[in-house]
Each structure stands twice: as structure tokens, then as C-alpha cells.
């Protein structure tokens, strides 16, 4: 058992790991005793990388980029995940920083060259670790804005416990089509759980993305949607749900950067999206009244993604 990490957790966080229901899988395993659920993690830091990341939405990245903490493993298993080398639950767990002190040192170092923004990527299954790291950073006199960058498969009660801790929610809303969640992400109830979760984020943050007078991010909700090839109907259903269940005043990030990381078992997923598909979804969003949209040029399939082997960045398609 990782005693250093255990000593950094509150009694509530320890209780959460003793019968883990952090996410909708509700595995109920005792992770302190080494039991593993869907995410295949027990008590472990499991941090694959801490790095300055300039690829987030401009209101977050601004000129200097954000400090992103990438967790290993995930509570969804999307076939096409661009971070599959760290997110796949059946591969070896990438754990770059052996101790809480070392990872806090790294976060502190990267924050010196970034905007005052600390993002946690795929944090859902590692929430106790995320909260412990925020306390450690705060103990060093640093109070960055906290971004919760997740896949959308979240538990409402767990999110309620994050009120006051998270400044910016940055969830994916991948599917409204239930079948696609099962086929592409190994999650049967993604659409239902994502809807409830993002409604809770909206309850906490509303539809405004707030900045201070200098443009520094304060708080908000930005909903990301990755358009998949051959799946514009799903994209339109997602947008419909956001417009009617939340509001067309929320900020959207419509992502064009889908790029199959390897041969997919579904033929439609073996290509990038077309300009026609992207524009069809964008036009539909505009027709619903969305007016705060981060759109992407289709050349954004070349967007930067972290290289988890070399602790740097690569571009999709680089060898
Ligand atoms: S965080 Fe992991 S162990 Fe806990 S409920 Fe989710 S998948 Fe299961």
C-alpha cells in the first residue's frame, strides 16, 4: 500500500476508496486492499505526465498554456482515444512520479511557466488523488484555477462533492445515442449518465465562462463534443440535448480532430471527418441558437497531443 499517498488523504477520501462508487460503474471494490474495478486501479498516484499544454480552448490556454496532469487509466475505454497509451486499462499503468512530493514538485515547476491554471485530465477514477494534490499545491502558497477535464461518464453525487473545488468543468459529451456508447466506449449507459452529470455541472456553473478584468479564467463550463465520422446524427442529438436540457447559452467546443490511432473495428471510424460533416453539425448548432462556440478548422486533426513516451508533444500523424 502507498502509505505516503494514504497519509495525504482525508478520512472521507479513504472511505471513498474503501468501497469505490466514484463513478457510475459503482464497482464497490476496496481499493485500499488492492481490489480493482473497471478502471483497474487500486491505491496509486498513477500519473502519466505533468506538462504545459497549449492545446486547450483559448480562454484556458491563453498565451502560456495550462499545467495539465494526465492520469493513467480511465473509467471509459473509447476505441479511438488519442491518449490510448495511458488510458487503456489493460496496458501497464504509467506512473511517472513515484511520490506525492515529486509530483507536487513537478506541478509547481510547470505552473511557473504556465497560466495560473491547473487541469486534471481523466480525473474521475482518481478524485481522491486529485484533491490531495490540490491541497499539496495550496500548501505551497499556489492557488491556480482548477480545471476538471473529463470524459463525461460521471456520478452526480461525486460531482456534488466537487462544488467549491473545481473552477472550470471541461467535460466531453460524446453520445446521445446509447448504442454508440456501448460500441465505441464500452459503457452501456453513457448517454444517460453524461446528461445527468453535465446538468449537475451546469447547476454549479451556469452558462457563463467568467474571466477577470485581465482575461484570466475564473470559472465556467465548456462542453466538448468530438464529431465522429459517419455519426452526425449522434452529434445533432447531443446538441439537441444540450439546448433543451441545459441552454443554448452554454459554451460549446465542437471538435474536428478525430484521427483513428490505429485500425478500428468499425469501418466508419477508419477515416477523419469531412468538411461537410463538420459544417453540417456546426450549422445545426447555430440553428439551435448556440452562439458561444469554439470551432476547429479541419486541419486541427494535426492538433498537438502529448507524447507519453517522451514527455513532450507530438502532432497527430507524426511518425
Ligand atoms: S472509479 Fe474505478 S473502481 Fe471506482 S467505481 Fe469507477 S471504475 Fe469502479
Mean pLDDT figure: 92
Overall geometric form? globular
Helix fraction by DSSP (H/I, runs of at least 4): 25-40%
CATH architecture: Alpha-Beta Barrel
**The first-level CATH class name:** Alpha Beta
Radius of gyration: 19 Å
CATH fold group? TIM Barrel
What is the domain total for the residues?
Answer: 1
| CATH homologous superfamily classification | Aldolase class I
The ligands found in this model are:
iron/sulfur cluster
Biggest pleated-sheet summary:
9 strands, mixed
Please count the beta strands (DSSP E, at least 2 residues each).
11
Describe this structure in words.
With 319 residues, the chain is an alpha/beta fold. The protein has one domain (45-315): Aldolase class I (TIM Barrel). It is built from eleven helices and eleven strands. Strand 4, helix 7 and strand 5 (168-171) form a beta-alpha-beta unit. It binds iron/sulfur cluster (SF4). The site of iron/sulfur cluster has 13 residues, from loops.
Topology:
Blueprint: H1 3-7, H2 11-18, E1 47-53, H3 58-61, E2 66-71, H4 84-87, H5 100-111, E3 117-121, H6 127-139, E4 145-150, H7 156-160, E5 168-171, H8 178-185, H9 190-205, E6 210-211, E7 217-226, H10 232-246, E8 251-255, H11 275-287, E9 293-294, E10 304-307, E11 312-315
Helix pairs in contact: 10-11
The structure holds iron/sulfur cluster.
Amino acid at each position: 500500500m502507498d502509505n505516503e499517498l494514504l497519509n495525504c488523504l482525508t478520512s472521507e477520501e479513504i472511505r471513498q476508496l474503501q468501497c469505490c462508487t466514484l463513478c457510475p460503474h459503482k464497482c464497490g471494490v476496496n481499493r485500499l486492499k488492492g481490489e480493482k474495478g473497471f478502471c483497474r486501479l487500486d491505491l496509486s498516484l498513477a500519473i502519466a505526465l505533468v506538462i504545459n499544454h497549449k492545446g486547450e480552448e483559448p480562454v484556458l490556454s491563453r498565451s502560456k498554456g495550462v499545467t495539465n496532469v494526465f492520469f493513467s487509466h480511465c473509467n471509459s475505454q473509447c476505441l479511438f482515444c488519442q491518449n490510448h497509451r495511458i488510458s487503456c486499462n489493460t496496458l501497464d499503468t504509467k506512473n511517472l512520479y513515484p511520490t506525492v512530493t515529486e509530483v507536487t514538485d513537478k506541478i509547481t515547476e510547470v505552473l511557473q511557466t504556465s497560466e495560473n491554471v491547473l487541469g486534471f485530465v481523466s480525473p474521475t477514477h482518481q478524485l481522491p488523488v486529485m484533491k490531495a494534490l490540490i491541497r499539496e499545491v495550496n500548501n505551497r502558497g499556489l492557488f491556480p484555477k482548477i480545471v476538471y477535464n473529463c470524459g463525461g461518464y460521471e456520478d452526480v453525487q461525486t460531482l456534488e462533492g466537487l462544488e467549491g473545488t473545481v473552477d472550470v468543468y471541461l467535460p466531453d459529451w460524446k453520445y446521445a445515442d446509447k448504442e454508440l456508447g456501448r460500441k465505441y466506449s464500452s459503457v452501456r449507459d453513457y448517454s444517460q449518465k453524461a446528461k445527468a452529470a453535465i446538468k449537475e455541472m451546469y447547476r454549479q456553473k451556469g452558462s457563463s465562462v467568467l474571466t477577470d478584468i485581465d482575461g484570466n479564467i475564473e470559472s465556467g463550463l465548456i462542453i466538448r463534443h468530438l464529431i465522429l465520422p459517419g455519426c452526425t446524427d449522434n452529434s445533432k442529438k447531443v446538441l439537441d440535448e444540450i439546448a433543451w436540457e441545459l441552454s443554448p447559452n452554454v459554451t460549446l467546443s465542437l471538435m474536428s480532430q478525430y484521427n483513428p490511432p490505429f485500425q478500428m473495428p468499425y469501418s466508419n471510424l477508419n477515416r477523419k471527418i469531412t468538411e461537410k460533416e463538420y459544417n453540417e453539425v456546426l450549422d445545426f448548432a447555430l440553428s439551435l441558437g448556440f452562439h458561444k462556440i469554439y470551432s476547429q478548422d479541419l486541419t486541427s486533426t494535426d492538433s498537438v497531443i502529448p507524447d507519453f513516451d517522451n514527455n513532450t508533444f507530438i502532432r497527430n500523424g507524426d511518425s
